[in-house]
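Consider a concrete sample entry:
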Amino acid sequence: MAIVNATDQTFAVETKDGVTLVDFWAPWCGPCRMIAPVLEELDQEMGDKVKIVKVNVDENQETAAKFGVMSIPTLLVFKNGELVDKAIGYQPKEALAELVGQYV
C-alpha cells in the first residue's frame, strides 16, 4: 500500500479503518526527513497490515492542533479511527514495527 498524504479535510477518512500510523512532519524538519525512508521500508514490509499516512503540519494545522502535536516528527497510531499509541521524534524501523505490530 502506498503512503498517503492526508489533509485536515481527509484525515478522518484516512484513519477510520484498520491500523494506521500517522506521521506529523514538515519539509524543513531534519528528523522528519530522516524518518521518511524508514516509513517507506515499513510500508513495503507491513503495507498489507498497516496504512501509513503523512500530515504536513505547516499545511494542516487544525489536525496537528487537535492531537496536540507540539514537536515533529510525532507518530500516532490509530485503530479503527481511535488513537491508541504515539511516539515522538525519530524512531528506527524496528521500534516503529513494534509500535504498530501490537495493534494488527
Q: What stands out?
A: The CA atoms of residues 57 and 65 lie 9 Å apart.
